[in-house]
Amino acid sequence: MERGILWLALLGVFIWLAWQGKNEYQKVENYRVWAEQFERAKYDIYAVLGQKGSNLTWGKSTQKGLIELQTFSLKDVQSIQLLIDSQPIDVNNLPRRGREVVLEFLLPSTHIRVPFTEIPLAAEWGKFLQQELQRLQLEPTE
Asked: Which ranges of the chain would DSSP assign to H, the alpha helix?
């Protein structure tokens, strides 16, 4: 009897794991289809981010699709900062850990915070987008 209860509980765990795996697969598949339109894109459990030209689009991936998508132009961004636990961090001197990793874009009327799970990935995106921002600022305006 005890073995039956143990096997039933174990079966329940396996069913739950299979369901979770299916949900995660669906999120990644939705992201993959969405990311095809971008030159550069990232996926993690907190957010998706895509870059096409000077436009950045970010949002959240769910099993039913991407939600809360927002698009803004790097041309409107005044500065980009990497924040770890709400503190600005030098991308050349990264801490090993942090609870909250965010790339913050300061615009004239607001700021946009894109969450990341990994500090090195956020730093890589921060460096790249900072270079893009500088390049756009040096371009002559028409």
From this structure: 2-35, 119-138
Pairing of strands 55-62, 65-73: antiparallel
* Helix, strand, coil content of the chain in percent (nearest 5): 40, 35, 25
pLDDT digits (tens, 9 = 90+) for 36-91: 999 999 998 889 999 998 899 999 988 888 889 999 998 999 999 999 998 888 87
Residues 43, 28 contacting (CB under 8 angstroms) = yes
The pLDDT of residue 102 is above 80: yes
CA atoms within 13 A on the CB side of 135: 9
Residue indicated by tokens 């041309």: 75
Q: Specify the pTM.
A: 0.80
For residues 140 and 126, what is the distance between their CA atoms, to the nearest angstrom? 23
CA distance 58 to 103: 12
Confidence of residue 17 (pLDDT cuts 50, 70, 90): very high
